[in-house]
Amino acid sequence: MQRPLPPILIAILRSEAARRVGARGYPVMTIPYAVSGGLRELAHMASEYKAAYRQAGHGDPSRPVILCAVHTHVAGDSAGVDRCAKPAIDRYVRTRLYAISRPFEVLDEKKLIACGEADKVISVIRSYEQAGFNVFLAIFDYGGMERGEVIRSTERSAREVLPAFR
How many Cβ atoms from other residues are within 10 Å of residue 123's Cβ? Predict the structure, then answer.
């Protein structure tokens, strides 16, 4: 069952903020690569949010939006990841002021990005579902990636990834 996204989401980076926002009943979003140590930390954040939401009397904690915005690239093969996603992620992360700067390999290992062939991207999205997130925002255009690659990745996602979530 799909529900429309609310007009405003509160961006958070830490569990303390998740508790505060959850207690007020607002929907949240986070960008995992920016500060998270990995999915365990993100699952804790989602759990803290849901607990505060429920304790404040807002009702069913599965109702509000808990969104993660994840840099995504759906490649045709591993060479496409190395050629397109890796340099774009590295460039993007290197230029952010508020994020922890980590190399592509670390972000990939910790599932803080979703880059690879369709089955790998599906697996990463499923990991976020298991961590308690109910909306996955795939960020396809980042780090000066060539426009044609962004379009090909988006089209591959529509053909090969999205059907797994119908």
Answer: 13
pLDDT of residue 64: 85
Residues 77-111: tens digit of each pLDDT: 989 899 999 999 999 988 887 777 889 999 999 99
Report in angstroms the alpha-carbon separations of 113 from 48, 75, 129, 138: 22, 13, 14, 9
- Parent domain of 138: 10-165
Domain count, the chain: 1
Name residue 11's beta-bridge partners: 29
Can you give the CATH number for the domain in which 158 is found? 3.20.20.30
Residue corresponding to tokens 């591993």: 78
In a domain, 150, yes or no: yes
pLDDT tens digits for range 117-150: 999 999 999 999 999 999 999 999 999 999 999 9
What are the strands, taking DSSP E only, across the chain? 10-11, 28-30, 66-74, 114-116, 135-139
Contact assessment for residue 45 and residue 14, using Cβ atoms and an 8 Å cutoff? yes
For residue 3, being part of any structural domain is answered with: no
- Angle (nearest 5°) at CA 16 between 57 and 10: 70
pTM for the complete prediction? 0.90
